[in-house]
Write a structure and sequence with these properties.
Elements: H1 2-10, H2 30-38, H3 43-58, H4 67-71, H5 79-92, H6 97-100, H7 104-110, H8 116-128, H9 132-146, H10 151-167, H11 169-174, H12 177-183, H13 190-206, H14 217-227, H15 232-242, H16 250-260, H17 269-282, H18 291-307, H19 312-328, H20 348-361, H21 367-377, H22 383-399, H23 404-416, H24 420-436, H25 445-450, H26 458-470, H27 478-486, H28 494-510, H29 516-527, H30 533-548, H31 550-557, H32 573-580, H33 586-590, H34 772-775, H35 782-785, E1 804-807, E2 815-824, E3 827-836, E4 846-849, E5 857-858, E6 873-881, E7 894-900, E8 905-911, H36 926-935, E9 941-946, H37 953-961, E10 966-973, E11 976-984, E12 990-998, E13 1004-1010, H38 1016-1028
Antiparallel strand pairs: 1-2, 2-3, 3-6, 4-7, 5-6, 7-8, 9-13, 10-11, 11-12, 12-13
Family: Belongs to the adaptor complexes large subunit family.
Pfam families: Adaptin_N (PF01602), Alpha_adaptinC2 (PF02883), B2-adapt-app_C (PF09066)
Subcellular location: Endomembrane system
C-alpha cells in the first residue's frame, strides 16, 4: 500500500531505536488518551500521539474515530508530522469521505509551499486519496505541480496523473492533463521523462485503442537521451516504451540498437532483459547480411550468460526468457552450451529448464558433448530429472540425424540397467526414433520385447504395443504378445486400449489367417463392452472397413506414415513473436500471452514483431499442406507439423490451381468441416451430441488420409448409433441399421449403408431413440406458446461487417489487405481490397487458410488477373467452402491466412462473423423446436444482454431473418414479446434462442441453447452486430 511505503520513508525522521515502543503498547481505552494528546498544545506531545495512531493503524487496530483530531494536526510546519498525518489520511479517507473534505484546503495550501518536498508530498497524497469529492479539488494544484520549477515535484505530479486517471478518466481528459503529460516527455530532467513515460504507459494499457504514446523519431531521440541518466527503474520504463515503437527502416532500427546496447551491461537484471527485448524486436528489421547484425548477436550472449550466475529464482526467470530467445534466434547462444550444463546443487526447476535449452541448442558440432552429459544425468537420483534426460536423448536422435545411432546405443545401455522408469522412458523415445528413421534401427526390437513384462505405465505400454503392431511381420510371436495385453483390456487406460485395437488390426492385415479370432475378440471388446465413445468409434470404423473392403482397410491402416517433426514442443510462431515482445514480464515466464492470465484483459493489444525490411530470406519449411481444394501430391513423405504450430500449414503454399474452380454449392445439413479419421479435431464442438427424432441428425464427414476418398467408412458413437430392437418402430427417415450389436456377429456386417446422397456412398448415422414424451401431443408449459403465432415482417438483407485493414502495408512490404465476409445466395464470400503501396509491381497472387474451427477454405484461386501496379487498388471476391480441415481455434472464429505474391509470403489473422455460417434451411418445425429445447441439458443454456437496441420485436425478427436467424414463434407475456428462434450452422450444429423484447426498454435478454455451448458466445456477438447495424 502507498501509505505503508511512505511509512518506511518516515523512519529517517525519528530514532530507529525508539520507534519500536509505539508497537508494544497493550493498553485498553487508549483512544480517549490519544484524543487528548492529539489536541495538546505541545508540538512534541502531538507528534508522539500521531506516531502512536500510525502504529496502531499499522498493526490493524481501528483508529478511524480519531479522524477529525488527526486532520487538525495538518496545520504544522513540521515535515515529519505532516507526513504522518498524510499517511493516516490516505488510509481512512475512503471510509470517512465527508471528513476528508476538511483537509482539502491544507492540501491546496501545501501545493504552493516554498519547500518542494512538501509540494510533492501534498500532490502525491491527494492522488492516493481515492475519494471522488476530493478529485475535483486536485485538478488545479496538479496543473501547477506539473509545471513546477522543481523536477522532483514534476516527476511526482506525472505519476499522480495516472492515479487520477484510474479514479476519473473523463476528468483527466477534460482538464488536458494527458497533453501536459506528453509535453513532459521533452522535459530536461531524465527522471521526469521516465515518470511521464511510466504514467502514459499505465494509462495506455487500460485504453489500448488510444494513441497516447504517439512515438516518432524526435520523441524517441529524447527518450534515448534520458535513458543514460535516469535510475534503473526509469530505464526499464523507457526501454519498455521503446519496445512498442516500430522504426521506419533498418537504418533507424540500427541507430536505436546502438544506443540501447550499453544497457546490456547493467547490474540490474530487469534492465538487461528489457534491453534484450528491444534489441530482439528491432533485429527483425536488420538485414542478416549486415555486419552490425552479426556484431549484435555476439553482444547479446554475454549478458544472458551472466544472468545464470544469479540466485536460483532469478536463474529460472532468465532461463524461461532464454528458452524463448533460443527458439527465435538459436545462433545467439549456439557457442554457449556449457553454461546450460546442470550443476549438482541446482534446484529441479532450474535443471529441467536447462535440459530443455540444451536440446534446443544441440547440433552436429556439440552433440557428442551433449550426449555425454545426458547419459550422466540418466544415472541421477531425481526421477523426474532422469525421465526428462532419457527423453532428451531421444529428441537429440530425432533432431541431429548423424547422432541417431549413438543415441540408440546410449538408450540400449540405459535399458540394460533394468531401472524400471528408465526402461519405460527409453521405450517411449525409441518408438519416436522408429517413426523418424523407419527400417533403420529395428534390430533393437528383440531387446525391447524382453522388457515387456516390466512395463506398467500407460505411455510405455502404448509405445511398446505400437512397436509390436507396426513391426508384427518381424516378430514371430507378435500375436502372443498382443494377446497378453488383451487379457486385462478393460483395466488398461484409454491410451493403451486405442493403441492395442490399432495394433491388432495391423497384425490381422499382415497375418489374416492366424489372427482372425484375435481381431474379432478386440473388436467385440472395443464396441460392445466399452463405455468409451472414442474407443467404440474407432472399433466401428475398423469393423466396417474390414467387413466391406479389406483392400481399402489395408490402404488406410497400413499407409506409409509421414515422418515426425524434429521439434515437437516449439511454441507456435505467432505466439512466440508475441512472447518475444513481452520478454522480462510474467508472460515470458508462463510462456502465455497476458490475455491468458490477466483478468479484465479483453482490450489488451496483441504485440507482434516488425516485418524485416532487409534482403528477402526464404523461410524453409516442411511441405505440410496444399492449396485449398487441391489434392495432396504423392511425393516423399512430408513432415508432420508440431501440434502447437498453427501456421504449419501456411508456411509452404502449393500454388497449383484448386480442383474446385466454381463457387461452392449451398451448404446443406450434411456438410461439415472435416475431422481426423479417428476422432481428432473439434470433438465436442463438431457434434458429439444426441439429437431427438426429426431434428436433422449430427453427421461426421470422415476424410481418408489418402488423396482418393474411401467410401465404405461408417462411424458410430453412443449418440448416433442406437439399437431399435426394443422399440416399437424407428423413425421413418432413419437409414437401415447395419451396425454390430449383441445379435449380429462381425461376419454379418456387409452390405450397403443408407444415408444422405450429400455424404456419398457409405455414409449415414441412425438418429437417437425417440423419447416417449415426443410421441404424444405436447401440452402445457413451453408447448402452449407455440400455438401463438408471431407476426414477423419481411426479412431485410443479410448483415455484412464493414471492411477493416487485416494486413497493414508496413508489415507486408507495401501490400495492404482490407476485407470483410459476406454470405450471398448461400455462398460465403471473402471480399478483399488489395492495395499496392510499394514501388514495384505485384503479381502471382495466391491464398491459403490454416486449419480452423469450421473448415473454411478457398473454393477457388485468388482471381487477380492483372498485375497490381504501384498505388493501384483492386477488389477481389473469393468464394469459400466449409469442407476444409478442422482445428479448434481461440477465439473460435479466428482465421489464419497466408497470401503469396511475387515478393514474399505474408501472414495475418482475422475474425469472421459466425453468421456467415448460418445456412438457409435453418428454420425448425415448432414441435421439433420444442422437443429439442427440452432435450438439450439446462447446463448448455447461456444468457446474455444486448444493450441499447431500439427495435421492436417485429423489426428485430425481420432483421435477424436476413442473416438466416429464423423466428419459429412469438408470444407476448405481460407486455414483453418473446421470440423463439432457430439457427443452423454449416457443420450441422443447431442453436436455439429465446429473445425477450420489452417495449420502451432498450436492453434485450437472449437465452441460447446448443449441444456445443462453445459457439454460444460467437452467436451472441452476431445477434448484437446484426441488431445494432
Amino acid at each position: 500500500m502507498e501509505w505503508a511505503n511512505q511509512l518506511c520513508e518516515n523512519r529517517q525522521f525519528g530514532s530507529k531505536m525508539t520507534d519500536s515502543k509505539y508497537f508494544t503498547t497493550t493498553k485498553k481505552g487508549e483512544i480517549f488518551e490519544l484524543k487528548a494528546e492529539l489536541n495538546s498544545d505541545k508540538k512534541e506531545k502531538k507528534k508522539e500521539a500521531v506516531k502512536k495512531v500510525i502504529a496502531s493503524m499499522t498493526v490493524g487496530k481501528d483508529v478511524s474515530a480519531l479522524f477529525p483530531d488527526v486532520v487538525n494536526c495538518m496545520q504544522t510546519d513540521n515535515l515529519e508530522l505532516k507526513k504522518l498525518v498524510y499517511l493516516y489520511l490516505m488510509n481512512y479517507a475512503k471510509s470517512q469521505p465527508d471528513m476528508a473534505i476538511m483537509a482539502v484546503n491544507t492540501f491546496v495550501k501545501d501545493c504552493e509551499d516554498a519547500n518542494p518536498l512538501i509540494r510533492a508530498l501534498a500532490v502525491r497524497t491527494m492522488g492516493c486519496i481515492r475519494v471522488d469529492k476530493i478529485t475535483e479539488y486536485l485538478c488545479e494544484p496538479l496543473r501547477k505541480c506539473l509545471k513546477d520549477e522543481d523536477p522532483y515535484v514534476r516527476k511526482t505530479a506525472a505519476v499522480c496523473v495516472a492515479k487520477l486517471h484510474d479514479i476519473n478518466a473523463q476528468l483527466v481528459e477534460d482538464q488536458g492533463f494527458l497533453d501536459t503529460l506528453k509535453d513532459l516527455i521533452s522535459d530536461s530532467n531524465p527522471m521526469v521523462v521516465a515518470n511521464a513515460v511510466a504514467a502514459l504507459s499505465e494509462i495506455a494499457e487500460s485504453h489500448p485503442n488510444s494513441n497516447l504514446l504517439d512515438l516518432n523519431p524526435q520523441s524517441i531521440n529524447k527518450l534515448l537521451t534520458a535513458l543514460n541518466e535516469c535510475t534503473e527503474w526509469g530505464q526499464i520504463f523507457i526501454l519498455d516504451c521503446l519496445a512498442n515503437y516500430t522504426p521506419r527502416d533498418d537504418r533507424e532500427s540500427q541507430s536505436i540498437c546502438e544506443r540501447v546496447t550499453p544497457r546490456l551491461s547493467h547490474a540490474n537484471s530487469a534492465v538487461v532483459l528489457s534491453a534484450v527485448k528491444v534489441l530482439m524486436k528491432f533485429m527483425e528489421m536488420l538485414p542478416k547480411d549486415l555486419d552490425y547484425y552479426g556484431t549484435l548477436l555476439k553482444k547479446l550472449a554475454p549478458p544472458l550468460v551472466t544472468l545464470l550466475s544469479a540466485e536460483p529464482e532469478l536463474q529460472y526467470v532468465a532461463l524461461r526468457n532464454i528458452n524463448l530467445i533460443v527458439q527465435k534466434r538459436p545462433e545467439i547462444l549456439k557457442h554457449e552450451m556449457k553454461v546450460f550444463f546442470v550443476k549438482y546443487n541446482d534446484p529441479i526447476y532450474v535443471k529441467l529448464e536447462k535440459l530443455d535449452i540444451m536440446i534446443r541448442l544441440a547440433s552436429q558440432a556439440n552433440i557428442a558433448q551433449v550426449l555425454a552429459e545426458l547419459k550422466e544425468y540418466a544415472t541421477e537420483v531425481d526421477v523426474d530429472f532422469v525421465r526428462k534426460a532419457v527423453r532428451a536423448i531421444g529428441r537429440c536422435a530425432i533432431k541431429v540425424e548423424q547422432s541417431a545411432e549413438r543415441c540408440v546405443s546410449t538408450l540400449l545401455d540405459l535399458i540394460q540397467t533394468k531401472v524400471n522408469y528408465v526402461v519405460q522412458e527409453a521405450i517411449v523415445v525409441i518408438k519416436d526414433i522408429f517413426r523418424k528413421y523407419p527400417n533403420k534401427y529395428e534390430s533393437v526390437i528383440a531387446t525391447l520385447c524382453e522388457n515387456l513384462d516390466s512395463l506398467d505405465e500407460p505411455e510405455a505400454r502404448a509405445a511398446m504395443i505400437w512397436i509390436v503392431g507396426e513391426y508384427a511381420e518381424r516378430i514371430d510371436n507378435a500375436d502372443e504378445l498382443l494377446e497378453s495385453f488383451l487379457e486385462g483390456f478393460h483395466d488398461e487406460s484409454t491410451q493403451v486400449q486405442l493403441q492395442l485395437l490399432t495394433a491388432i488390426v495391423k497384425l490381422f492385415l499382415k497375418k489374416p489367417t492366424e489372427t482372425q479370432e484375435l481381431v474379432q475378440q478386440v473388436l467385440s471388446l472395443a464396441t460392445q463392452d466399452s463405455d468409451n465413445p472414442d474407443l467404440r468409434d474407432r472399433g466401428y470404423i475398423y469393423w466396417r472397413l474390414l467387413s466391406t473392403d479389406p483392400v481399402a482397410a489395408k490402404e488406410v491402416v497400413l499407409a506409409e506414415k509421414p515422418l515426425i517433426s524434429e521439434e515437437t514442443d516449439l511454441i507456435e510462431p505467432t505466439l512466440l513473436e508475441e512472447l518475444i515482445c513481452h520478454i522480462g514480464t510474467l508472460a515470458s515466464v508462463y510462456h502465455k500471452p497476458p490475455s491468458a492470465f490477466v483478468e479484465g484483459s479483453r482490450g489488451v493489444m496483441h504485440k507482434r514483431l516488425p516485418a524485416r525490411t532487409g534482403s528477402g530470406e526464404s523461410t524453409e519449411s516442411p511441405d505440410v499442406g496444399t492449396a485449398a481444394g487441391g489434392s495432396a501430391p504423392e511425393a516423399a513423405p512430408s513432415i508432420i507439423p508440431s501440434q502447437g504450430d498453427l501456421l504449419g500449414d501456411l508456411l509452404n503454399l502449393d500454388m497449383a490451381p484448386p480442383t474446385t474452380t466454381g463457387p461452392p454449392p449451398p451448404n446443406t445439413g450434411m456438410q461439415m468441416g472435416g475431422m481426423d479419421l479417428l476422432g481428432g479435431g473439434l470433438d465436442s464442438l463438431m457434434g458429439d451430441e444426441s439429437e431427438p427424432p426429426h431434428v436433422p441428425p449430427r453427421t461426421d464427414i470422415l476424410r481418408s488420409p489418402s488423396p482418393q476418398p474411401l467410401s465404405p467408412v461408417y462411424t458410430h458413437t453412443d449418440y448416433t448409433y442406437t439399437d431399435y430392437s426394443h422399440t416399437d418402430s424407428p423413425p421413418d427417415h432413419s437409414p437401415p441399421d447395419h451396425s454390430p450389436t449383441e445379435h449380429s456377429p462381425p461376419a454379418e456386417l456387409g452390405g450397403d449403408i443408407g444415408g444422405s446422397p450429400a455424404m456419398g456412398a457409405g455414409f449415414g448415422a441412425a438418429p437417437a431413440v425417440m423419447p416417449a414424451s415426443l410421441n404424444a401431443p405436447v401440452g402445457g408449459g413451453l408447448g402452449d406458446l407455440f400455438d401463438l403465432g408471431g407476426g414477423v415482417g419481411m426479412p431485410m438483407g443479410a448483415y455484412i461487417p464493414p471492411k477493416t485493414v487485416w494486413l497493414p502495408a508496413m508489415k507486408a512490404k507495401g501490400l495492404e489487405i482490407s476485407g470483410t465476409f459476406a454470405r450471398r445466395a448461400g455462398v460465403i464470400q471473402m471480399e478483399l481490397i488489395l492495395t499496392n503501396k510499394a514501388m514495384s509491381v505485384m503479381t502471382d497472387f495466391a491464398i491459403q487458410f490454416n486449419r480452423n474451427s469450421f473448415g473454411l477454405a478457398p473454393a477457388g484461386p485468388l482471381q487477380v488477373l492483372t498485375p497490381l501496379g504501384p498505388n493501384q487498388t483492386i477488389e477481389v471476391s473469393l468464394p469459400l467452402s466449409t469442407v476444409g480441415p478442422v482445428m479448434k481455434m481461440d477465439p473460435l472464429n479466428n482465421l489464419q491466412v497466408a497470401v503469396k505474391n511475387n515478393i514474399d509470403v505474408f501472414y495475418f489473422s482475422c475474425q469472421y462473423p459466425i453468421s456467415m455460417l448460418f445456412v438457409e434451411d435453418g428454420k425448425m418445425e415448432r414441435q421439433v423446436f420444442l422437443a429439442t429445447w427440452k432435450d438439450i441439458p439446462n447446463d448448455n443454456e447461456s444468457q446474455f444482454q444486448i444493450k441499447d437496441c431500439h427495435l421492436n420485436s417485429d423489426a428485430a425478427s425481420s432483421k435477424l431473418q436476413g442473416s438466416n436467424i429464423f423466428t419459429i414463434a412469438k408470444r407476448t407475456v405481460e407486455g414483453q414479446d418473446m421470440l423463439y428462434m432457430s439457427i443452423k450452422l454449416s457443420n450441422g450444429i443447431w442453436v436455439l434462442a429465446e429473445l425477450r423484447v420489452q417495449a420502451g426498454n432498450p436492453n434485450y435478454t437472449i437465452s441460447l441453447k446448443c449441444r456445443a455451448p462453445e459457439v454460444s458466445q460467437c452467436v451472441f456477438q452476431c445477434y448484437e452486430a446484426v441488431l445494432k447495424n
